[in-house]
Model the fold of this input.
Amino acid sequence: MNIDSARPGHWTDDQLIDYLYGVGPQDGHVDACGECRVRLAKIQARRDALNFGSGDEIGHEFLAEQRRRIYARMAQPVRWWQEMAVRRWTSALATGGLLAAGMLYYESVQRPRRPVNEVTDAQLAQEVSSMAQDPEPAPTAPLQALFEE
Ligand SMILES: [Zn+2]
Done:
């Protein structure tokens, strides 16, 4: 609430609001100072406007109007349930869409890529048979030399 900025020597807005609710300063400044009395009146007017012109209590008319609105909504349960169903379906569709998008993304990232230099079955068979024909692979030859005497 920024009704008027307080100047030195006068009460602040907070002090005026506190005074309005009976917990403000008790130095009697607002009784002696016309400027603070005007600001207090402005704050009081704004508070009363927010409280529907009924002072401290919530107005009886406001409560009655609220009750009428609640009964009016209870009188049309079909529309209320339709709204709920629409909301439920909307959230379900949104969730499903997010899941589908996530799965598509995961699939595109996780899909195994074919190796660049692919070995065909024929090449593999040829390699295995050449290894079988050669009883001693080349890399182990130096090791064999260690045990020959
Ligand atoms: Zn003052």
In short: The chain is about 65% helix and 0% strand. The mean pLDDT is 80. The helical segments are 13-20, 29-32, 34-50, 60-74, 77-110, 121-133, 141-147.
